[in-house]
Specification:
- By secondary structure, this protein is an alpha/beta fold.
- It is built from 10 helices and 8 strands.
- The chain has one domain: TIM Barrel.
- Bound molecules: SN-glycerol-1-phosphate (1GP).
Length: 248
């Protein structure tokens, strides 16, 4: 049970070159629509469904996780945005420390709140160093966390943060422009960071085309997260194109 989903992700990476994760934000559509979208993602090549968002203002988070878990064969992993909320039915949680922030609540406070629930529910925890990257947009995650993103052109800052995550024992580094970001995490930054770290690198935020997703993988991203693009166009064809671009 320990590390089961983390090992699954590593396996996906080693067999397919990179992993394709679809993000469902239960705030953005009714639960039935979330299920429809998640099913399309699963049948069109996604390796995992992430469920989460920055606000969670609707009371349908657990219901959504539970429904997706019942209906889909791929793992359902909680991606809590900033506030670490836990669902008893999730396969795992990306237990985030928002390491680009200097806000103790996001560095350790939220984890302390979540830890007893993780134990009680027996949910697998995937310790994740989370970094907001400048994206030319004031995203919900930036507003809610009130933290400075990593500058786009400062590879040394990005590398130092990612290495700190690695040496603190994080199993994953997540560089995120934020949901709906105008600009995705710079390809050069991905290249610089991936060359220096030994743990997997997840990239998300503002990736709107399969070509851009592929570019990120070629630069060294191990996992790609797509959310907004499928809220805008959830045709099976587009999702399949993303899957092919990320996996090839
Ligand atoms: C947001 O990385 C995720 O935290 C996904 O971003 O919605 O822009 O695809 P998008």
């Amino acid at each position: 049970m320990i590390n089961k989903r983390y090992n699954y992700l590593l396996d996906v990476k080693s067999k397919k070159g990179a992993g394709f994760l679809c993000l469902i934000d239960p705030d953005n559509q009714p639960t039935a629509e979330s299920l429809k979208l998640a099913k399309k993602c699963a049948t069109s090549g996604a390796d995992t469904i992430l469920v989460g968002g920055s606000l969670m203002i609707k009371d349908n988070f657990n219901e959504t996780v539970s429904l997706l878990k019942d209906e889909l064969d791929i793992p359902i992993i909680v991606f809590p945005g900033i506030f670490n909320f836990v669902s008893p039915d999730a396969d795992a949680i990306l237990l985030l420390s928002m390491m680009s922030s200097r806000n103790p609540q996001l560095l350790i406070g939220e984890q302390v709140r979540a830890a007893p629930l993780i134990k009680q529910y027996g949910v697998e925890s995937i310790p994740t160093g989370y970094f907001l990257v400048q994206s030319n947009s004031y995203t919900s995650v930036q507003f809610m966390s009130q933290s400075n993103p990593i500058p786009r052109n400062k590879a040394d800052i990005a590398i130092s943060h990612a290495l700190a995550a690695q040496y603190l024992g994080m199993k994953l580094v997540f560089f995120d422009g934020g949901s709906g970001a105008k600009l995705s995490v710079p390809t050069d930054l991905i290249k610089s960071v991936s060359a220096e770290i030994d743990i997997p690198l997840m990239i998300g935020g503002g990736i709107r085309s399969p070509e851009v997703a592929r570019e990120k993988v070629e630069a060294g991203a191990d996992f790609i997260v797509i959310g907004t693009a499928f809220e805008e166009d959830n045709s099976n064809n587009l999702i399949k194109e993303f899957a092919e671009a990320i996996h090839k």
